[in-house]
Amino acid sequence: MLYKKKWTLKHFGKIKENKVGTQVGISPEISQILKNRDIITEKDAEIFMNPSLDYLRDPFLMKDMQKGVDRIKKAIEKKERIFIYGDYDVDGVSSTSILVLYFKSIGYDVKYYIPNRLKEGYGISIEALEKINEIGCDLLISVDCGITSAKEVEFAKTLGMDVIITDHHECQDEIPDAIAVINPKQEDCTYPYDFLCGCGVAFKLIQALTPPEVFRESMYDYLEIVTLATICDIVPLKDENRIIVKNGLKMMKDGRNIGLKELIKVCGIDTHQLKSSHIGYSVGPRINASGRLGYSYLGVELFTADSSEQAKEIAMDLEEKNSERQLIESKMYSEAEAIIASNQSYEDDKVLVVANEGWQHGIIGIVASKLTEKYYKPTILLTIEEGMATGSARSIKGFSIFDALVECKDLMSKFGGHEQAAGLSMDARNIDELRQRVNEIADYRLTKEDMIENIKVEYELQEGQVDLDLVDQLHLLEPFGMSNPTPRFIMRDLVLANIGFVGAAKQHLKLTLQKDSVYEAIGFNMAYLADEFTRGDKVDVLFQLDENNYNNNRKVQFLLKDIRMAHPKSAIKDSTSIKLFSKIVPHDVNNLYKIDYDLEKKGINDSDFGQNEISNSFNQKYSNYNDINIFEFFDENTLVICNTLNGFFRAYSDLSLIDDEFDIEFGIICKDTHKIKLIFSPNLDKLDLNIYNNIILYDFLYNKEEYSYLLYNIKANSNLVKYYDEKSKLYLNSIMDNIVPTRDEFISVYKYCITNKHIEITLNKIKAVFGVMPLKIFVILSVFREFNLLEYTINEIDNILIIDFTKQSISKFNLDESLILINIKELKERYLESY
Q1: Which phi and psi (to 5°) does residue 642 adopt?
Q2: Contact between residue 101 and residue 74 where contact means Cβ atoms under 8 Å apart
Q3: How far is CA 615 from CA 532, 623, 730, in A?
Q4: 208 sits in which H/E element
Q5: Residue 87 neighbours by CB under 8 Å, 6+ apart
Q6: What is the DSSP letter of 673?
Q7: Other Cβ atoms closer than 10 A to 678
Q8: Which residues contact 151 (CB under 8 A, 6 or more apart)?
Q9: CA angle 729, 732, 735 (to 5 degrees)
Q10: Of 45, 317, 310, 66, whose CA–CA distance to 205 is shortest?
Q11: Residue 388: which residues within 8 A CB-CB, separation 6 or more?
């Protein structure tokens, strides 16, 4: 049983009140989320909850800021010709816009240049510098680009231009020899926060150019645009970024910038409900769309518009461009998927490198992101034109695509970016070698576990905590983004009461989940998951808390992010359950239960067992199952024992939430770092119990002799933890009731096997084929194998039971002589005696 995604809890156990929460006046639930973000002091919590603009840092702490300011002021004094050179994405357009607005505010005319994404590509280019020179330029100020443009800066000098670079991207070996290079990512820059977006760096430049008393008022002219760029560039929403975005979102509710206000209207967003997600998923893509189609200047025109009429017209134009972009994107995504599906070698690649002729330059980044999200693999997508390949790269956590490209830089004519995203261009003949080399790098740096998406979860919500009040409190933590993600929670053992679909193409999954209360959940674009579940299954769900306000009826809604099986409704139709049944039955006579302990010699009476099964003898902190925080016992050298499907699924679910990865051998989980073993229905006499610090029982043991054996074979001071309740006995009762086949069942299976000789049956069809419960089938087959009548195996990958009958004619054999059957009957008898 393998989960497709890993869930990792940030906090284990129940939520408790803490001092910081009380001091700041927030609930324990919100306080725990702050603690999960390493916000543990009253002051830090206060700054996080109420990030004031007074906390903005001194811009002159940034390397070369004073040089840049001095040169700009000199240019203004001498009335020199100034060009702003931006990038074509939201960050670059926003950066360009706020500098244009700044110069407009001081009455100084400047020009700007944004390269055409389709024709010129990313960054400063020789061709662009020549065009700018023809118009006339004395000082070029780059925004959101330029840190890798050493050659271009040298060329600009030959044209008589001075260059100031403002950027936030990763630096390469050679820093351009410009008048000033303002980028907090430089190694020798001591600015205390280096995660500003490009627009954030431009904002700091404006702050440095403006007298403090003036900036306290004028910064509101730029704050909304900087907020947009900060959200869309996916930089950590901490420190100055959080200050900017928290205050900028408040401003957007009234809309100081005419252009942004009109664009928000076009998106159909209620400004009083405006969140960072609206900016990231609705507003930003419309600015990006114009750049992707070669009209980046529209964004600057929008944000610097002087009238509502002009802004409205541009906003509608951007809306049209976005619709066009969506059509192109859909087509390109389908083509990329077809290429991947047609070449089986992509399955083994850890990095997808996909190229095609005629793809739209500007859309490649979006499609690369979608492929990375779907396959959870770094992706490089390239379009080929006239022998040149140009494209975008996107990555997953733990793999710097920028560093990988640095190691392959001899294959490329140009590249730039950061850990998670990059752009590149190269000779198309080098594509195959790039694919080979970047995968060799990934093979070395990415483990099997790295290729499984790890979703961080705040904590496990209990039913009493889920209400609209908590939904409202979560808004206090906004804005959400990188380093302050939207909180995600889990709930477990929910009954899947109903499965439905919504959306024009029925692409969205709608679930009704039930425990003591009933919950609605919606999973956008997750309809494909429905095939894995059926009504009545118990499921674990991972979700964001939201509200459904249909017809003014407010109620809690789960925004589903992942779902997995907790316990199937029908064990006989579940492959994992059937494989577990096969583990209960002894494989051969060498695997029989042999514990036969004389309890009285050890001073233990039968009265110590019964309903309490020696729980007073356990070395544990808690007497009540519900009071145990089981995660406290998942330590080095821990043995977890389960005897029922319910116990196994519970244990597997708990272990899967621990941050460390583990290898899986069916029925046994061996944790590399902590050496945790999960064993299903073990023969205790075959285990070296003395090596474990903790032994955790998720189920009742089969009989009192097994408890006795445990107590006298574990090492001193080890914890023996009972993690089950009286209801758990029902699951063990069910196994005991179905473990001994009748004689008629033996005969029925024998006749089927001798008739068909070689049999291959999908596990979930065993009951339908034989008319016998799967547990009994494995007992019957094991007994027949004991008499050398047949051999059987389970194909674990394809979930197929394979039976080969070895006798050509009916041989006489006596079931009463089967050691396996005798052993199973004795096991049942001891169980009944013990309970």
Answers
A1: -130, 145
A2: no
A3: 39, 8, 18
A4: helix 198-209
A5: 93, 95, 114, 115, 122, 123, 143, 144, 145, 198
A6: T
A7: 25
A8: none
A9: 155
A10: 66
A11: 413, 425, 426, 427, 428
Picking from 132-136, 431-435, 524-528, which range would have the lowest pLDDT averaged per residue?
524-528
As a dihedral over the C-alpha atoms of residue 646, residue 651, residue 657, residue 661, rounded to 10 degrees, the angle is -130
pLDDT in tens, 287-301: 887 777 777 889 999
3-state secondary structure of 776: helix
Tokens representing 641 are: 């024992």
Give residue 723's identity as a one-letter amino acid code.
Y
Give all strands (DSSP E) within 551-598, no chain letters: 553-567
Whole-angstrom distance, CA of residue 277 vs CA of residue 271: 13
Backbone angles phi, psi at 358, to 5 degrees: 85, 5
Structure-token match 């500007």, residue found: 362
Structure tokens at 218: 């004028």
What pLDDT does 313 receive?
Answer: 94
Tell me the backbone φ, ψ of residue 662, rounded to 5 degrees.
-140, 150
If one counts every other C-beta atom within 10 angstroms of the C-beta of residue 598, the result is 9
**pLDDT, tens digit (0-9, with 9 covering 90-100), for 615-650:** 444 444 445 667 788 998 888 789 999 999 999 999
pLDDT, one tens digit per residue, over 233-281 is 888 898 999 999 999 999 998 889 999 999 999 898 888 888 888 888 8
> 767-789: per-residue pLDDT in tens?
999 999 999 999 999 999 999 89
674 within 8 A of 660, measured Cβ to Cβ = yes
- Token duo for residue 638: 């821990």
Give the integer Cα–Cα distance in Å for 511 and 496: 7
Q: How far is CA 531 from the centre of its chain?
A: 22
Contacts of 86 (CB under 8 A, 6+ apart): 92, 93, 95, 96, 112, 113, 114, 142, 143, 144, 145, 296, 300
**Which of 71, 65, 103, 62 lies closest to 84 in space, CA to CA?**
103
**Would you call 682 exposed, middle or buried from its count of C-beta atoms within 10 A (0-12, 13-18, 19+)?**
middle
In whole angstroms, what separates CA 110 from the centre of its chain? Answer: 44
- Helices (H) and strands (E) counted in the chain, each on its own, are 28, 27
Reading across the β-sheet that carries 82-85, which strands appear in turn?
111-113, 82-85, 139-143, 162-166, 180-182
